[in-house]
Specification:
130 residues, 6 helices, 4 strands
């Protein structure tokens, strides 16, 4: 029997591509446009566990003054990274990393807004402890 390690479990996790409008609604906004309007000027926004969603791209197109960072473990895979970066505006970054170690990548309170949707089930794949 193959032993699963944390790395192999996350490599097998599905990278999702939920629609931007759906995510805007789930985060309490009427639309992607109303979310974009709610951001302060020159905002830094982080989407933890962004996957393949166009959420950040759509907001960034409406707000070229912001910096939107999609953060996802799956971006370590060059194929996935190429897929998610295709057609991205210049104000969207894609960063590969472990969501449980965000403080190793970003300083606390360095973002104006942080989003995450459906990340917790992925974090519980390999360990039941928070």
């Amino acid at each position: 029997m193959n032993e699963l390690t944390t790395q192999t479990v996350y490599e097998k996790a599905v990278t999702t591509d939920r629609p931007a409008e759906m995510l805007a609604h789930k985060h309490g906004f009427e639309s992607v446009a109303t979310l974009a309007e709610a951001l302060p000027p020159n905002a830094r926004v982080l989407d933890v566990g962004a996957g393949a969603s166009p959420f950040g791209k759509e907001v960034a197109v409406l707000r070229p003054d912001i910096t939107w960072i999609n953060f996802d473990y799956s971006y370590q895979d060059p194929v996935i990274l190429a897929e998610v970066t295709e057609g991205s505006p210049t104000n969207v970054e894609h960063v590969a990393g472990d969501a449980t170690r965000l403080v190793e990548v970003y300083e606390p309170e360095s973002f104006d807004m942080v989003f995450s949707y459906w990340l917790l089930p992925h974090l519980s794949i390999d360990d039941t402890e928070p």
